[in-house]
Amino acid sequence: MARKKSEKEVIQELGVNEQTPREIVEELNKYIVGQDDAKKSVAIALRNRWRSRKLADDIRDDVIPKNILMIGSTGVGKTEIARRLAKLVKAPFVKVEATKFTEVGYVGRDVESIIRDLMQIAVRMVRRQKTDEVKEKAAENATERLLDILVPEPKRTQNPLSKLFGGGNDHEPVEEKAEEPADNAGREFIRKRLASGKMEDQVIDLEVADHAKPMVGMFSGSSLESMGDNLQDMISSVMPKRTRKRKVTVAVARKILEQEEAEKLIDMEEVAETAVQLAERSGIVFFDEIDKVAVKGSSSGPDVSREGVQRDILPIVEGSTVMTKYGPVKTDHILFIAAGAFHTAKPSDLIPELQGRFPIRVELKSLQKEDFEKILTEPQNALIKQYKELLKTEGLDIDFEGEAIGRIAEMAFDVNEQSEDIGARRLHTLLEKLLEDISFDAPDMVKEGKTSVSINAAYVDERLKEIAKNRDLSQFIL
């Protein structure tokens, strides 16, 4: 059985990435083309988390993370860096859209809900870690409960007068003692069959907890959502747990019972305490579309709320204490990464106090023709690879010639130059238009015996040249 890990060990395992900055950049390079400055800043920020753990206690609290502001057009990789970072880090990570929040007093989400969401993720991570530790014991207990269902204990026979006068002894009946050996033999026989996997498809009746739907959903999305969570927890703790019978296979029953047994073995108070420390020391919050709450000049009308959002975000970024249902969470050492296109606004349009809390500024460059070519072919999730695999499910192989890829990249760059620059997202629209007929006719082509299609530069020109030439038309279609 796995040794129970201490709270400190759990935090160290989950909260810190062992990769060097170079290794983090190499991992990001698998999915994101270019933008080396942004990748480097993110990699250094993650490594500094690891370095801060090595500091002495007296100086560690004084070393706060240096928050990052990423500036660049839409579609150049800001959000993709956040997505890949979330998969890479072993720390609580939450990505939020700044436009979803409103100033206190307006209808909308309260900015403190960001930290509550971060805590939920931290709790889930710690809980999963603790579940892995007790997995073996939970599996043993689940097997015993399965045996209780498959080989129920014989009913005890009692002297009728013992119930009337209360003088009987539960261990007196001779019948039960006579049945025990046969019962044990049957239990061991079933245990061996369970272990060998011969009973996985057998259907049994299982008592499972009946999880009622949330009663206080009306609170979600408002500034009272934390009150709603607490009220719901209070009601669920007071109300008796209801159960219902389900007909399930032994394989499904085992999973349900293992989960229930693991929950019994886990101390949720310890999980909550560990999760609070994990969120405080290792949490990462990614603010997307931060430029949408920037305000030019004096604010009036709907812009009042936008500036209010900035002022509400400020205490969290500066360092404050947010109350959650798992306890108070300090935000001093949470790393904040903000990103925005800043087309209509500038970083200087953010309130000065908020600007000062994002000392590291990284400008992401607009994509060039060479970048588009790499995006189409190099990343693990490259668009051309995706389309090839999609059409392969129909039995149709498509092959893109080198010149064709170059023409697509050139057209994407030209259209971005002529109309709105939407970065790599332009490739999605071009490829959809390019492969529209092939995607539509693919099943019929395979039926007629055509199993491969080669796409050359001439085909690309034929399908896309008119749209690329006509600027007005490209604005509507692409």
Could you please describe the fold and organization of this structure?
The protein has 478 residues and is α/β, with parallel strands linked by helices. The protein is 55% helix and 11% strand. It has 21 helices and 11 strands. The protein has helices at residues 7-15, 21-29, 36-53, 57-60, 78-88, 113-133, 135-150, 160-165, 174-196, 225-238, 250-265, 268-282, 303-318, 352-356, 369-377, 383-392, 402-418, 425-434, 436-447, 457-469, 471-477, and strands at residues 68-71, 93-97, 203-209, 243-249, 284-288, 321-324, 327-330, 335-340, 360-363, 397-400, 452-455. The strands form 4 sheets. A 5-stranded parallel beta sheet has the order 2-5-8-1-9, sandwiched between helices. β6 (321-324) and β7 form a beta hairpin. α2 (21-29) runs antiparallel to α3 (36-53) and α7 (135-150) packs across α11 (250-265). The radius of gyration is 30 Å and the shape is flat. The two termini are 59 Å apart. The relative contact order is 0.14. Residues 172-179 and 214-223 have low confidence and may be disordered.
List the helices and strands and how they pair.
Layout: H1 7-15, H2 21-29, H3 36-53, H4 57-60, E1 68-71, H5 78-88, E2 93-97, H6 113-133, H7 135-150, H8 160-165, H9 174-196, E3 203-209, H10 225-238, E4 243-249, H11 250-265, H12 268-282, E5 284-288, H13 303-318, E6 321-324, E7 327-330, E8 335-340, H14 352-356, E9 360-363, H15 369-377, H16 383-392, E10 397-400, H17 402-418, H18 425-434, H19 436-447, E11 452-455, H20 457-469, H21 471-477
Parallel strand pairs: 1-8, 1-9, 2-5, 5-8, 10-11
Antiparallel strand pairs: 3-4, 6-7
Helix pairs in contact: 1-12, 2-3, 6-12, 7-11, 15-17, 17-18, 17-20
